[in-house]
Design brief:
The protein has 6 helices and no strands. The protein is mainly α.
Length: 144
Amino acid sequence: MSDTTASPARTVAARGRDRGLRIALRTVQVLLAVFFAVASALPKLIAHSSAADTFAEMGWGAAGMYAIGVLELAGAVALLVPVLQSVAATALSALMVGAFVVQLTYFDGENAATPLILMVPLLIVARARRGHNEELRRLVRARV
């Protein structure tokens, strides 16, 4: 059999595998969105003492805390919007680079692995969903 023709069984199997990968990727996106919205952004946005004390210790105050919280919440929501998924994952990855640097500089590396661990699935989502970037470009150009 040549490479250009595929058996019906192979096609069905490939579609099933692709569907499984799409479901797994979507599950990862939802879990990341829930984490960033609930575990990361919410404490900052409600000025929970754990977040407020940390930002005060760094000298960033309430403004810095709220700004990071808003960015995390926006990223969490955007992870669930098809046209924004890749951009959101990339932006949250950049935020995690900043979090890693902060953990190293202000907190002597305590919990520095957490942002690096979060970057792995974020970068996978950014890469896998990069096809949506062209659609986003088209939408932006149409508005400009």
